[in-house]
Amino acid sequence: MGKSTLFNALLKKQQAYVANFPFATIEPNVGVVPVPDERLEKLAAIYHSPIVPATVEFVDIAGLIAGASKGEGLGNKFLSHIRETSAICFVLRAFSDPDVIKQGVKDPKTDFEVLKLELDLADAETIENHKKKKNPDEGELPLFSKKPFLIVLNVDEGDLKKSIEIEEKYSNELSVGKDQIVVISAKTESELSELSDEDQKAYLADLGVEKSGLERLIQKAFKTLGLITFLTAGEKEVRAWTIKSGTNTQTASGEIHTDFVKKFIKADVCDFNDFVSLGGWKGAREVGKVRSEGRDYTMCDGDVVEFKIGA
Ligand SMILES: Nc1nc2c(ncn2[C@@H]2O[C@H](COP(=O)(O)OP(=O)(O)OP(=O)(O)O)[C@@H](O)[C@H]2O)c(=O)[nH]1
Ligand SMILES: [Mg+2]
User: Fold this and answer.
1) Percent of the chain's residues with pLDDT above 90
2) Is 105 in the pocket of ligand 1 (CB under 6 A)?
3) CB 87 within 8 A of CB 221
4) Which residue's CA lies nearest to atom 23 of ligand 1?
5) What spacing in Å lies between the alpha carbon of 33 and ligand 1's midpoint?
6) Total-model pTM
7) 5 CA: nearest ligand 1 atom
8) Ligand 1, atom 25: closest residue by C-alpha
9) What is the per-residue pLDDT across 122-165, written as a single tens digit (0 to 9) for each?
10) Are 55 and 195 in a shared domain?
11) What's residue 186's pLDDT?
C-alpha cells in the first residue's frame, strides 16, 4: 500500500528535473523517471554541457487482493500492464497511521504472501490458456513468478533512520535477500518531491538519512537486475547509459545507436575517477589514462567511453 503515492512522487521529481530529455508521458500509469547519478554532475562541471540521465520506466497498477484471480476486488486482468516489465516491485504497508484503513491489507508478511499467491494463480491461468493454443510449444510465456522482484517497505517517517535494522528483520521474516528490500516512506517521498534540491537534502539530513528513497530503490533495482552504467562525456552532453553487467564494448555501443554494433572499430575507455581528476578526455589522454579497447572488452560500471565507428 502506497504504490500510487510513491509513483506520483517519482513523477513529480521527473518533472522537476532540469535536463534536455524528452520524457514521454505514455499512459497515466506509466512514468519515465531519471536515474539519480552524482557522477553526471561532475562530468557536466568539466564540459559545461547538459546532463542526460539514464531512465527507468515505472508502471503503477491497482492493488491485488486475496481472491483477485477469482475476480475479488478489481480482479487481476490489469496485471497485463506489467507482463513485459523487467522486474516487479511489491509495495507493502509497514506504516502505522490508524487514520488510513484499507480492506485486505494486514501486515507485510501476510500481504506479501497474498500477492505472491495471486501472481502464481495468474501464472497458472496463463499456462492453461497457452496449452489450449494450437501450437503450445510456440511463443514465450512471461510469467510473473519468474521475474526478479524488489520489496518496498512503506514505513513511518520516523523509522527511516532504522532502515538497516528493518531490512534485516524483514529479510528474515519474508525470506528474501537484504538487497531486495528497500525501506521507504511514500509520504516522505511525496513531501520531498515538492521541495527544491537543497531543501530536500536538508530534510533528509533531519530525518537521519543520506539518500532519497528513489535513489535507494534504483540502486537496489540495478543490483537485482544486474545492471551497470557507462558514461559518455563531451561538449554536446554528458550522459549515462544502462547495460547488463558483463556486456562487451561492441554490444554496449548499440545502446547509443544500433548501427554502431556493425560499424564498431574500437572504444576509448577511461576510469571515471581518472577522467574527473584529469579534467576530461584531453588531460586523461596526455598522461596515458585512456585505454584503447577492442570489441571483447567487458564494460565496467563508471567507464567513460568514446566509441570509434567506421563508415
Ligand atoms: N501515513 C501514511 N499514509 C500513506 C502512506 N502511503 C500511502 N498512504 C495513504 O494510504 C492510502 C493509500 O495509498 P495509495 O498510494 O493510494 O495506495 P495504493 O497502493 O496505490 O492503493 P491501490 O492502488 O488502491 O492498491 C492513501 O490514503 C495514502 O495517503 C505513508 O507512507 N504514510
Ligand atoms: Mg494505487
Assistant:
1) 73
2) no
3) yes
4) 62
5) 20
6) 0.89
7) 15
8) 63
9) 999 999 998 888 776 667 798 999 999 999 999 999 999 999 99
10) yes
11) 95
Nearest C-alpha to atom 5 of ligand 1 is from which residue? 187
CATH of the domain at 150: 3.40.50.300
Domain residues for the domain of 23 are 3-225
| 25: pLDDT strictly greater than 60 | no
Of 5, 8, 112, 159, the residue with max ligand 1 atoms within 8 A of its CB, to mutate for a pocket test, comes to 5
Q: Is 95 in the pocket of ligand 1 (CB under 6 A)?
A: yes
Question: Which ligand 1 atom sits closest to the C-alpha of 1?
Answer: 19
Pair (135, 278) in one structural domain = no
